[in-house]
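From the methods appendix. Each design record in this collection lists the tokenized structure first, followed by the designed amino acid sequence. Records were kept in a plain field format so they could be parsed without special tools. The example shown here is representative of the layout used throughout.

RECORD:
FOLD TOKENS (200 positions):
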């Protein structure tokens, strides 16, 4: 795997961690443990994810998130609690992927990984808060199920192909920024700034 592939994999997993951190850790660890992922030498620090204790803990977290994310307003509470957890998790996953002997790339991975996870987390949390404004629960369940399927599919594609990882990282980053801009525009329309009274 060349430098572009490693950066793409680190970026895509960090961005996906902003949606489903526990699922990313669980799926990556399980794929490594079963031998589906043959890691190059420079990625050996990710071996910790293949530990059954780590896989089990991530599985419990993914299961809890699966159900919490389907319940209106519980999902927003879950997102609020994970505002710190997901960026830290995304940063640590990105940190584990790059060459541990290159401190420059370690710092870059830590900063960008955390920022990428925070970006997608912000877009997800904002979108779910907007969906929760709807009185019926079905749209919430549909959006959550879509996130589950998308995260799993994109994670598998990222691990399978370095170029897919790069494309996914770019598309997710652009999509997250676009969603945040749309949410900002909608918020401003719902809560317009009060004009100061005209002076007489």
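DESIGN:
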């Amino acid at each position: 795997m060349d430098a572009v592939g490693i950066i793409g994999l680190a970026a895509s997993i960090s961005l996906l961690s902003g949606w489903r951190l526990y699922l990313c850790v669980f799926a990556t660890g399980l794929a490594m443990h079963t031998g589906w992922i043959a890691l190059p030498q420079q990625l050996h620090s990710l071996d910790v994810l293949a530990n059954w204790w780590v896989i089990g803990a991530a599985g419990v977290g993914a299961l809890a998130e699966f159900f919490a994310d389907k319940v209106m307003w519980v999902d927003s509470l879950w997102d609020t609690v994970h505002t710190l957890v997901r960026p830290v998790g995304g940063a640590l996953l990105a940190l584990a992927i790059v060459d541990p002997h290159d401190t420059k790339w370690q710092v870059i991975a830590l900063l960008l990984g955390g920022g990428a996870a925070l970006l997608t987390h912000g877009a997800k949390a904002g979108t779910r808060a907007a969906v929760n404004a709807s009185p019926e629960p079905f749209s919430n369940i549909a959006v959550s199920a879509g996130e589950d399927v998308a995260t799993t599919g994109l994670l598998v594609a990222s691990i399978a192909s370095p170029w897919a990882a790069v494309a996914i990282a770019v598309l997710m980053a652009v999509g997250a920024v676009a969603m945040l801009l749309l949410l900002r525009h909608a918020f401003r329309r719902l809560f317009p700034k009060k004009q100061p009274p005209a002076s007489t």
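APPENDIX NOTE: The chain has one domain: 3-183.
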